[in-house]
Amino acid sequence: MPPPALPPSGATATTPTTASSPLSNLQTLRNHIQTLTDLNNRLQGLRHIPALLLRPPPSDVHALPQASLLRHEFQELKEITESVRSEKVQDALKAARKSEAAEPKIVGFDVRRNSLKRRHVHTRPPSPESPQPYRATGPKSSSFLSHGDAVSAPLALDGLPAYIREHNRSSQYKLHVVAPKKGRPLQCPVVLRFVIPDVVVIYMTLERSATEDQALVVESATAFGPREQKAIHSQSDFTVYQQLTQQLARVLQSEPWAPLQAVVSLLNSYHNLFTEPCTVCGRVLSADVHTPPVARVRREPTADSPSEWGVHHVACKWR
Questions:
Q1: Do β-strands 174-178 and 200-208 pair in parallel, antiparallel, or remain unpaired?
Q2: If 0-12 CB within 10 Å is exposed, 13-18 middle and 19+ buried, where does residue 244 land?
Q3: Per-residue pLDDT tens for 96-124?
Q4: Is 189 in contact with 207 (CB distance < 8 Å)?
Q5: Cβ–Cβ contacts within 10 Å for residue 17, how many?
Q6: pTM of the predicted structure, to 2 decimals
């Protein structure tokens, strides 16, 4: 059998050159990485120099003199500066910057993003240029003031005892003035206790209005259980009365100058707190926290629903 033919002389000369090109690029990349790694390690070692210069260690027989220590640290800074300016480090930094700029094109990020844009251009509307402001989807609470309350005369401090007596004669839900001492002259702030037997006790703090001369307005209202013995500035231990307090706070915040008569009219609607079902979901206890409907919204009475108050759970109010 004849021996195999030898390759041409030109192929012998070109084959090592072709194979050495990728190897040369790989070796250059390794050199750049090693150069930048060494530089980073030296820079990390500089972190102790400012603290060392500000608080030098106490000198002893084994420590360097202070002048020698400072010369050594400044020499280290000088050497690192020269290293950063060297051609070897600059070439590695330029290669790293060039690689970082070309990286998105290498992984095909732009191509994939443009492909997704073309794929969904006919299946979804374009994205808005900027986020749109939030708009509540639920019905806005109307004023809890009725027409009769709106035209009623504001109640002054000297007319409060007569109003309480008239209210207690005409209603089974009673109002009382909470006074620290008997015989104490009536003055603001006044604390009233509103009681619906076996349902709720609500403490109201009254103060003079800043807009109406001598008119009394309700600053705060806190609900408690009928048998809770708590301080009036604390809160109830029961979730239902905590939610009721929060709802009353929202009402007072929305209409801070509402007269006392309107607030008492609202409180009277809570006589059926534990028996009236929600007008939205039809349940007495909510499905999430198992509490009765504590929100009230004024509405126009109808033949089917003669009450002027809509009863809602907190979560159902905005449905």
A1: unpaired
A2: buried
A3: 888 877 765 544 445 555 665 555 555 56
A4: yes
A5: 8
A6: 0.52
